[in-house]
Amino acid sequence: MTRRLDSSASGLAAAASILQAGGLVAFGTETVYGLGADATQPEAVARIFAAKNRPRFNPLISHFPTAAAAFTHVVACPLAHALADRFWPGPLTLVLPRAPGSTISDLAADGLATLAVRVPRGDTVAQLLTLAGCPVAAPSANRSGRISPSDATHVLAELDGRIDAVLDTGPCPVGLESTVLDLSIPSAPCLLRPGGVTLEELEAICGPIRLPDTQSDAAPLSPGRMLSHYAPHLPVRLNATAIAPDEAVLAFGPQQTPTQSASWNLSESGNLQEAAARLFAGLRALDLEGQRLHLRGIAVQPIPNTGLGVAINDRLNRAAAPRPDSALAPGSTLP
Ligand code: TXA
Ligand code: MG
Q1: Which of 112, 157, 245, 268 has the fewest CB atoms within 10 Å, i.e. is most exposed?
Q2: By the 8 A CB rule, do 58 and 139 touch?
Q3: Which CATH architecture has domain 3-225?
Q4: What role is this protein assigned (predicted)?
Q5: CB of 277 within 8 A of CB of 229?
Q6: Torsion sign over Cα 27, 28, 30, 34
Q7: Which ligand lies nearest the alpha carbon of 57?
Q8: Pair 102, 40: CB distance under 8 Å
Q9: Cα(103)–Cα(156) distance, rounded to whole angstroms?
Q10: What one-character-per-residue DSSP string does 27-68 give?
Q11: Can you say how many angstroms the Cα of residue 27 is from the centroid of all Cα atoms in its chain?
């Protein structure tokens, strides 16, 4: 049985004590819901992997209420401080060398010499992290490989009965995961995952940021970079300018195909921020409705590849990628 807690003082106290006791609490952040456990307790972290069916090799982000708390666990370069001043609390994760005295478990860090740290935005999450008094390891609160949850109902749809509680803070305002920036070589910042803070915003402070070279980079592959991720059950077709009658449509901008039986407009006004916030909820809704109506797939209208559009298209490319699990393989007959 998973308890649904609210952000009242008693809800927060219950969530914090579950974390301290080594249990699992899903909680809302500005990006997506995280599935949290005390990062210093390896048994608690192991429960995250079990609840998500997550491959063991993925390192987790540790969440903190303040930059000062985060920086006790990593060796922060001046650039990390500048980025924290500008973007924390907010949707940016920094990968930095682990501090020698850090108490974060090897399991949370996957035994790496680096650690991913983040200070999420939101009063409730800040209170929870302060009350818990420990670093909280939290991947997105979905089954591994599935769509990230942007409200508490999504979390329960996949994890009810597998976790102790969900702290319901309503829908997540950003709706896309944090941007992951590797600063382990301070002179060569590297973008591991596009997300809620755009490349342009980061480059205004960092200068040019490199993209990882999968051939030669020693850095571990982020699961955010594994191809099939964020996968609905139905196949996904991108850059669709014409929609077949038996396809669901994920629309963007003024709607051209109003007769579609299953459709979800990310933003009728073409606003990328609104589109990001509605992306995962839309994929989930179309996946359910499309299966119910026996549609053959989800067609996605083109989305501009600028600003937050880069992160949106990154997630959509993964949703459309070939699936390792043949039971989920998209039909090969789509145009
Ligand atoms: O917005 C978010 O970041 C959400 C909320 C809950 O905070 N969390 C999230 O966690 O998306 P997750 O586990 O789904 O993605 C974490 C990303 C992965 O791509 C992972 O590989 C990368 O961060 N990561 C974590 N530690 C790393 C490390 N030491 N080096 C490189 N990448 C790392
Ligand atoms: Mg995830």
Answers
A1: 245
A2: yes
A3: Alpha-Beta Complex (3.90)
A4: Required for the formation of a threonylcarbamoyl group on adenosine at position 37 (t(6)A37) in tRNAs that read codons beginning with adenine.
A5: no
A6: positive
A7: 1
A8: no
A9: 31
A10: EE-SSSEEEEEETT-HHHHHHHHHHHT--TT---EEE-SSHH
A11: 12
> Can you give the pLDDT at residue 120?
98
Q: What atom in ligand 1 is closest to the CA of residue 91?
A: 1
SS3 87: helix
Q: Is 326 helix (H, G, I), strand (E, B) or coil?
A: helix
Q: What is the ipTM of this complex?
A: 0.99
- Interval between CA 23 and ligand 1 midpoint (Å): 20
Mean pLDDT, consecutive 10-residue stretches, the chain (335 aa), reads 96 98 98 97 88 79 98 98 98 97 89 94 98 97 92 96 97 95 95 95 95 57 56 94 93 76 93 88 93 96 92 90 56 29
Burial class (CB in 10 A: 0-12, 13-18, 19+), 75: middle
**Residue 29 C-alpha to ligand 2 middle, in angstroms?**
13
Ligand 1 pocket (Cβ < 6 Å) reads 29, 31-32, 34, 58-61, 93, 95, 112, 114-116, 118, 120, 138-140, 177-178, 180, 192-193, 219-220, 222-224
Measured distance CA(120)–CA(136) in Å, rounded? 11
Q: 236-328: which CATH number, 3.10.20, 1.10.10, 3.20.14, 3.40.50?
A: 3.40.50
Residue 216: its pLDDT value, please? 45
What does the pLDDT read at residue 10?
98
Residue 54: both structure tokens together: 């997550």
Phi, psi of 232, rounded to the nearest 5 degrees: -75, 170
Ranges of each domain in the chain: 3-225, 236-328
72: β partners: none
Q: Is residue 192 within a helix (H) or strand (E), and if so which, with residue range?
A: strand 190-193
Among 175, 192, 178, 194, smallest CA distance to 271 is for 175
**Cα 155 to Cα 251, 276, 317, distances in angstroms:** 24, 18, 23
